[in-house]
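Pipeline run #58 for the internal structure catalog. This entry was flagged by the ingest filter as a single-chain record with no existing model, so it goes straight to prediction. Upstream metadata was stripped on purpose; only the residue string is passed forward. Reviewer on rotation: M.T. Logging verbosity set to normal.
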Amino acid sequence: MPFSHTKDVGPAGRFGARYGVGIRRRVVQVEVKQKGRHRCPRCKSITKMKRIALGIWQCPKCGFTFAGGAWVPQTIMGKTITPEELKSVENLKAQWKVKNKK
């Protein structure tokens, strides 16, 4: 088996000595996150999501297609609230309204 030319630089090894070290480091950060394992919003399995297009992702296990971030399937700002979390928020709102009416 031939040796790897990209042992130290990872996915950015395909650029060789071009484009500068800063750009290559950013490429490594983005691609490692993008091609890593993520949790499916429907089946909750942790798999390597398939990126169909910019911001469109598909779970290879259940086939669920959903919108997400450009480089990661779920962003911090786009995190959806689960029904259990929504119920707890609604309960807190109701308790707050009762306290403020007194």
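catalog note: The beta strands are 38-39, 46-47, 50-53, 56-58, 65-67.
catalog note: The chain has a mean pLDDT of 85.
status: ready for reviewer M.T.
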